[in-house]
Design goal:
Elements lengths: L5 E3 L6 H6 L7 E5 L13 E6 L2 H10 L6 E6 L13 E7 L7 H14 E10 L37 E12 L5 E14 L18
Parallel strand pairs: 1-7, 2-3, 2-5, 3-4, 5-6
Antiparallel strand pairs: 6-8, 7-8
GO molecular function, one term: S-adenosylmethionine-dependent methyltransferase activity
Keywords: Methyltransferase, Transferase
GO biological process, one term: methylation
């Protein structure tokens, strides 16, 4: 499968500004795998952060100062999406997430995101497989989430069909998680799926908490 169009960006600093031109501002965002930094590309009324590692959630809650939106923090893996109705969230976004999953699981996440979102699905990932391990269990922030930060799969534009828009920079990652310089830079890309409106896509927010 080939995604069309593929927009190639030469300079890494120009990648996100170009992507921002194509991201829609919506009211209800699900942020999958937010880590310690919930997304700030969209300024919704409600942002549901689904994060499997409890220490990251505690870090976020401790450091939230005067938030400009309502945050709902859920300690769960991505598959809590399976419990959500179709077309029940505006935007589902996951940055630097699918490379931490086995390929089959990453594809299931994408399919569920497509089912639940009614406006856009947005993701960011390295171009190809970027090796990353944390043998001491520590992550790049000095917390104990090393096992959640290991890379298990690599992704390319050919993994997405022509309904997706791809924004790609071939020389994006120049240092690793331990600040070591790579011999050659690794690329990265954004993939954005715009979902055609449906008459039924006007239902109220659906917010899940574990156990519902």
């Amino acid at each position: 499968m080939t995604a069309l169009p593929i927009i190639k960006i030469e300079n890494r600093k120009d990648l996100q500004p170009e992507v921002m031109k194509h991201i829609k501002q919506t009211d209800y965002v699900i942020d999958i795998g937010c880590g310690i930094r919930p997304q700030q590309l969209i300024k919704p009324k409600v942002q549901v952060c689904i994060e499997p590692y409890a220490e990251y959630i505690k870090h976020v809650e401790k450091n939230l100062k005067n938030p400009d939106r309502t945050y709902v923090m859920i300690n769960s893996t991505w598959d809590i999406l399976n419990q959500l109705p179709s077309n029940s969230a505006d935007t589902i976004l996951f940055t630097d997430v699918i490379e931490h999953l086995e390929k089959k699981e990453g594809k299931r996440l994408i399919q569920q995101a497509k089912r639940v979102a009614r406006v856009q699905v947005i993701l960011f990932t390295p171009l190809g497989f970027l090796p990353q391990q944390h043998p001491d269990g520590k992550d790049a922030w000095g917390l104990n989430g090393g096992k959640w930060q290991e890379h298990k799969s690599g992704w390319e534009p050919k993994d997405f069909d022509s309904n997706w828009d791809i924004f790609l920079c071939e020389k994006f990652h120049t240092v690793g998680n331990s600040a070591e310089l790579f011999d050659e830079p690794y690329g990265a890309f954004w993939a954005i799926l715009n979902i055609a409106p449906h008459p039924e896509n006007n239902q109220a927010f659906t917010i899940l908490s574990p156990g519902n």
